[in-house]
Amino acid sequence: VHKSKLDFFCKLGYGKQDICKVLENLGPEALEDDVLKELIRMGSKPQAVESQAQPPLLKLVPRGSCSTAPGSKWLREDESDSSDCLRPIVIDGSNVAMSHGNKEVFSCWGIQLAVDWFRERGHTYIKVFVPLWRKEVPRQDSPIADQHILEELEQQSVLVYTPSRKVKGKRVVCYDDRYIVKVAYEADGVIVSNDHYRDLQNENPEWKWFIEQRLLMYSFVSDRFMPPDDPLGRHGPTLSNFLSKRPVPPEPQWQPCPYGKKCTYGNKCKFYHPERPQQAQLSVADELRDNTKLLNLVKERKYKHSP
What is the secondary structure of the chain as a DSSP string? Predict the structure, then answer.
């Protein structure tokens, strides 16, 4: 158990010394979530993040702007995504095909649409998993549309068939979901599916966090494959950051003062005032100190020039 946890967090980029220290404090039976929280609390950071290019110099941000969380590392915005910066994609072929076929037909065209969407974004590692029996002549109770697409994707080394065989006339099918999660986990990639894999989350605690954080759901609008712009919710990363190994920081958003020109807080107001182009960028404490020095200087001059 200790070794599996050590390997898991080493894959995430944390140092062995920090991991061992946390496991000694929490015990070998500690859950991955608790170990991760303790590593974050200690200030330990994944080496993969620290080895990235340094972010640009910090700039003063006017009060009223939203800044990124302290301690987060980002790349410069001029460093555009390349195939090396994009996460591997592992597609649940059965889930995507049945979703495009309205849960009535196994639509291989839906798989092609999903693959094309990721190719257009520049992803080079794309794997689709489909049970081997889908290669057979379709039965009336399980229709397949555009079956030739499976053969084309297999020739392109994109589609992988999960094993199945017949024993005494009965088909024995391997659990393809386990292949999907395992490959995505080992490749540190993204799972494309509308399935939550709850059984696998309960079966393997190491996969629980991964499935929660790396599952990309989607919708089909006619023949358009559409993942959400906020895969982990409105407060989570954007779709581009979710699919990238090196996320780009969001632009700072200005929060206008709700009182507008009627605001009586002056320079102390923490919100943005568009009518004040030279709004102070100092903290309130620094502003007060500067104002006090200015007042003292004015008084001193008046005293010197007084009769």
Answer: -HHHHHHHHHHTT--HHHHHHHHHHH-TT--HHHHHHHHHHHT---HHHHTSPPPPPP----TTB--PPTT-----TTS---TTTBPPEEEEHHHHHHHHTTTTSEEHHHHHHHHHHHHHHT---EEEEEEGGGGSPPBTTB-EESTHHHHHHHHTT-EEEEPEEEETTEEEE--HHHHHHHHHHHHT-EEE-S---HHHHHH-HHHHHHHHHHEE--EEETTEEE--S-TT-TTS--HHHHTBSS--PPPP-B-B-TTGGG---GGG--SB-TT-TT---S-HHHHHHHHHHHHHHHHHHHHHH--
Output the six-digit token pair for 79: 């460093």
155-173 per-position pLDDT tens digit:
999 999 988 776 776 766 7
Rounded Cα gap, residues 187 and 283, in angstroms: 45
Q: Distance (Å, rounded) from C-alpha 194 to C-alpha 180? A: 13
> What six digits make up the tokens of 87?
């996460």
CA-to-CA distance for 200 and 215, rounded, in angstroms?
13
Contacts of 141 by beta carbon, 8 Å cutoff, 6+ apart = none
In the numeric block, which tokens belong to residue 77? 């915005």
Confirm if 13 and 49 have CB atoms less than 8 A apart: yes
Per-residue pLDDT tens digits for 30-60 = 776 677 767 767 766 555 444 444 444 444 4
String of DSSP letters for 204-244 = -HHHHHHHHHHEE--EEETTEEE--S-TT-TTS--HHHHTB
Q: Which three-class secondary structure state does DSSP give residue 163?
A: coil
CB of 94 closer than 8 Å to CB of 106: yes
pTM above 0.70, yes or no: no
What Cα–Cα distance (Å) separates residue 157 from each residue in 53, 107, 125? 33, 20, 10
Separation of alpha carbons 300 and 45, rounded Å: 52
